[in-house]
């Protein structure tokens, strides 16, 4: 994996030194092991190589073959399927380069792993840019005055453009959603005419324009996998899950994991520790926990401190080196300015983003180069389809089977039969796409002006409708904007930490496999999330399978804020008052909420809303200044 950037001038004009400097300089604070560039007439390519794998030390990027130029940010998981005899020591970039030489348009779909690449055929005056299928990595790009600019970071493109404008459509969708969602699509950025490659997308650029297409559809129709018995399904699942996990374990240093007390990360740990044990290696585990001494009660359904659970997991597997991370120096408000530099675009989830970034940097300090996790498990390996499955049986008239499943669920999970029948009938009969409109602190007039109000209302109606059935749930969970959400910020974390995140539960092959399974492979005979609770029962720690609580990360966010509430409220009020005439944010409403209430009485999301709204205002100060300076420079007389 690498940081990549470049400029391609189809007219072969000399690339100005100032532009080359702007592109390269933006990566100065990233954790890069080796810097390389390639220059020719009208071509400037760069690569900041990071040694995530042992083979990466032999990477020769950017590169050239004949009339073709190439640079890539690539870590291939399915190497063994792609290499030829004698290529075992080849770095991943060389493997991808050979695939591109053989058939550039087919190469992207052959890769499983983290990848963003640019291939320029000078003889055809054609550039191919593409990203991996599940959105691990990507490039931003823009075209201006006959030149293509691309970069793993957004900042150099904003700096290098002669004319820069704000993308109000993107920003109004961002701030108009009164929740933690950041994106409503997968290609736009806060700057007009600056885009990014979407997950599983190929973009062809010529002098005449762009052509875009997707090479993989995560929610497309698949042939249903029909096997003879549950034992055969179990064997197929475990074989694939082991393969997906093993292919992430190529770290040039130690291998780390985001470990919680839940099914997903623990199931990844189960397989990873087994594989690493055979190599004589340990798995380095990191768990986000509350500040030392904090006791937080969120009721019987939530576990706010997973320390004991992960300690038992480490004892169960023996070869786990466990680190409990409370990050006392990290603060959801006071750490925000520094984190904003890392993620480049507005973000909404300080309670998760900061500790993920902190753990990846801590892992780097401990000598880890790859960190794995199970963040996508709710849509794949531990998908819970019980309600959707019962509703499906009722809709199709399979009443005897439904009765049998409800009886078994009662025996195993102790849910009452009456509640399950009532819930199932309601799920079928009382479907509604209506939902409560939440406003937050956005100016309603701003949303109407940009068309965001109508757009966001339709998205909410569609999402509410889709979430009521299994097919719709998959449309939401496997949408390209979801893959973008999981990849946008972690690419930046990798660039700044020097640690690569990979997730076996997000593997394209695992998505394809789970989408092809019959629904009773996820729920049957009183068992929910069967692939973990039943098929991996002998591999999982008993205390994890017995737990009925849901882990809650960053449960101490409110406490961290309350400890310095006077200074924080003063900061928020100052920022809101400095933006009293803002056309996007209703700062008056925000000020009234702060002045008329107490932080102690606020819900957690109320505090999060204040954080991301004030961060947004500060972000827009810089963006408006940058765009203003660009536009003034553009209209100056020559």
From TrEMBL:
UniProt key word Amino-acid biosynthesis: yes
Asparagine synthetase domain ranges (all copies): 240-570
Catalytic reactions on record: L-aspartate + L-glutamine + ATP + H2O = L-asparagine + L-glutamate + AMP + diphosphate + H(+)
EC number, as in UniProt: 6.3.5.4
Record carries keyword NADP: no
Domain Glutamine amidotransferase type-2: 63-158
Pathway: Amino-acid biosynthesis; L-asparagine biosynthesis; L-asparagine from L-aspartate (L-Gln route): step 1/1
Swiss-Prot/TrEMBL GO biological process terms: asparagine biosynthetic process
Molecular function GO terms recorded: asparagine synthase (glutamine-hydrolyzing) activity
Top-level enzyme category: ligase
Keywords attached to this entry: Amino-acid biosynthesis, Asparagine biosynthesis
Name of the featured protein: asparagine synthase (glutamine-hydrolyzing)
């Amino acid at each position: 994996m690498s940081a990549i950037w470049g400029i391609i001038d189809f007219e072969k004009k000399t690339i100005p030194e100032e532009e080359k400097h702007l592109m390269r300089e933006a990566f100065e604070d990233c954790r890069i092991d080796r810097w390389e560039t390639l220059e020719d007439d009208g071509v400037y390519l760069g690569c900041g190589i990071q040694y995530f794998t042992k083979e990466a030390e032999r990477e020769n990027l950017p590169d050239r073959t004949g009339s073709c130029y190439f640079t890539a940010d690539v870590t291939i998981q399915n190497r063994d399927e792609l290499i030829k005899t004698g290529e075992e020591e080849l770095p991943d970039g060389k493997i991808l380069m050979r695939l591109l030489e053989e058939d550039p348009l087919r190469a992207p779909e052959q890769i499983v792993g983290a990848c963003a690449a640019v291939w320029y055929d000078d003889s055809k005056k054609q550039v191919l840019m593409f990203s991996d299928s599940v959105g691990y990595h990507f490039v931003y790009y823009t075209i201006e005055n006959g030149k293509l600019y691309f970069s793993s970071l957004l900042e150099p493109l904003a700096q290098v453009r002669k004319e820069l404008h704000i993308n109000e459509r993107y920003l109004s969708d961002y701030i108009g959603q009164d929740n933690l969602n950041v994106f409503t699509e997968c290609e736009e950025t806060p700057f007009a005419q600056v885009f990014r490659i979407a997950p599983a997308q190929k973009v062809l650029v010529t002098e005449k324009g762009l052509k875009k297409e997707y090479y993989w559809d995560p929610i497309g129709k698949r042939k249903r996998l029909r096997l003879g018995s549950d034992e055969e399904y179990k064997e197929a699942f475990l074989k694939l899950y082991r393969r997906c996990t093993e292919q992430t374990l190529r770290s040039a240093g130690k291998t780390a994991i985001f470990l919680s007390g839940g099914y997903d990360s623990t199931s990844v740990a189960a397989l990873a520790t087994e594989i690493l044990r055979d190599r004589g290696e340990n798995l380095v585990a990191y768990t986000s926990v509350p500040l030392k001494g904090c006791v937080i009660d969120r009721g019987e359904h939530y576990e706010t401190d997973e320390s004991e659970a992960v300690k038992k997991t480490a004892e169960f597997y023996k070869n786990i080196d466990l680190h409990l991370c409370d990050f006392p120096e990290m603060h959801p408000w006071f750490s925000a300015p520094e984190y904003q530099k890392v993620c480049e675009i507005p973000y909404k989830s300080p309670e998760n983003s900061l500790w993920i970034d902190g753990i990846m940097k801590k892992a780097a300090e401990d000598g880890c180069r790859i960190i794995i996790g199970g963040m996508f498990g709710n849509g794949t390996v531990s998908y819970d389809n019980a309600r959707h499955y019962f509703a499906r049986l009722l809709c199709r008239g399979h009443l005897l089977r439904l009765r049998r499943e409800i009886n078994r669920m009662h025996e195993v999970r102790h849910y009452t039969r009456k509640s399950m029948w009532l819930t199932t009938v309601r799920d079928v009969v009382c479907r509604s796409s209506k939902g409560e409109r939440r406003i937050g602190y956005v100016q309603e007039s701003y949303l109407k002006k940009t068309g965001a109000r109508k757009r966001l209302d339709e998205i909410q109606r569609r999402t509410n409708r889709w979430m009521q059935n299994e097919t719709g749930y998959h449309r939401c969970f496997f949408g390209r904007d979801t893959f973008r959400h999981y990849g946008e910020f972690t690419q930046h974390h990798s660039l700044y930490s020097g640690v690569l995140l990979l997730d076996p539960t997000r593997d394209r092959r695992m998505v394809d496999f789970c989408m092809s399974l019959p629904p009773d492979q996820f729920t049957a005979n009183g068992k929910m999330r069967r692939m973990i609770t039943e098929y991996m029962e002998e591999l999982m720690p008993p205390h994890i399978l017995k737990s009925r609580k849901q882990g809650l990360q960053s449960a101490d966010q409110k406490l961290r804020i309350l400890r310095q509430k006077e200074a924080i409220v003063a900061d928020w009020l100052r920022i809101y008052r400095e933006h009293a005439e803002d056309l996007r944010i209703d700062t008056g409403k925000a000020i009234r909420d702060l002045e008329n209430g107490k932080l102690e009485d606020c819900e957690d999301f109320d505090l999060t809303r204040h954080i991301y709204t004030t961060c947004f205002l500060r972000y827009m100060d810089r963006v408006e200044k940058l765009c203003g300076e660009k536009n003034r420079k553009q209209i100056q007389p020559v």
